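We treat protein structure as text, and this decision shapes the records that our systems exchange. We quote a single record here, exactly as it is kept in our systems:
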Amino acid sequence: MTDHTSMRRGDQLVFEVVLIGSAVHYAHVMMAAFAHLGRLGLGGDRSPATLIQGFTFSDQAQRFIPCFHNGQWLPLAPPIQPEFFYATVPDTGNRYHLQFVTPTRIKHAGTMRRQFDIPLLVSAAIRRLQHLNTLYGTMPWQPPVDALLADARAAHIVGDRMRWVDWGRTSEATGQTMHLGGMIGTLDVHGITPALATLLTMASTVHLGKAAVFGNGWFRVQPTDRTVSD
C-alpha cells in the first residue's frame, strides 16, 4: 500500500492483496468487496471512493495484467508458483537493503526481539512459509533448512537503522486493546546468497512475525548492487 496516510479528492490509493491457496479462486469477490467498501466510504469522514482498476500478476508474462477496468471484469492470471521467485531473484548480487515498513514482531525463546539478525529473519521466514504451505499448499514444500541457516550465519549486517515503535488497535466488537508494537527501519546486509534472497523475497509477499493478519511484518527486499563477493 502507498505510504500516504491522508488523501485529497482525486488522489489514487494503490495497494496489493496477496491471496493464498483456495482464496485465489475468490479474487473477483475480493475486488467486488473493495468496490463496495469504496461506496461505503473510506477514513474517518467516510469519503466515497471508486475502484478504477485491478491487476493480477502473470507468471508467464512476468508483469501485472488488468483484470478489472472501467467497471468491466477481465480474465485472471493463473496463480504464482514458487518457481516464479526462483527464476527472478538469482544473479542480483549479494548486497541487499531490507526495509521493514510496518512493525515487525518476532519472538525467540519466548522473548520479543528488539534486535534482528539474519538467522532470526531466515528462521521466521521458513516458519511462516511452511505454515502457510501446510494450510493452503497443493504439494509439500521442503526447503533446505540447514543450508539456508548456514548461509544466514555467513551473511553480515553492515548498517542497522532499526527501532522499536509502539502501536495498537482496539477491537470494536470487544473493546479490547491489543498492543502490536514492533521493529521498523532498515538493514543493509552483505553476503546474501541467491537462495537467501529468494526465500526473503517469497516471505516479503506474506509478511513476517506475529500479527501479520493486522498488517504487521511488511518488509521489502531490494538489491543495492551487483557485487558477487565481498
In short: The helical segments are 27-40, 82-88, 118-136, 145-154, 194-204. Residues 118-136 form the longest helix (19 residues). Residues 11 and 49 are 10 Å apart (CA to CA).
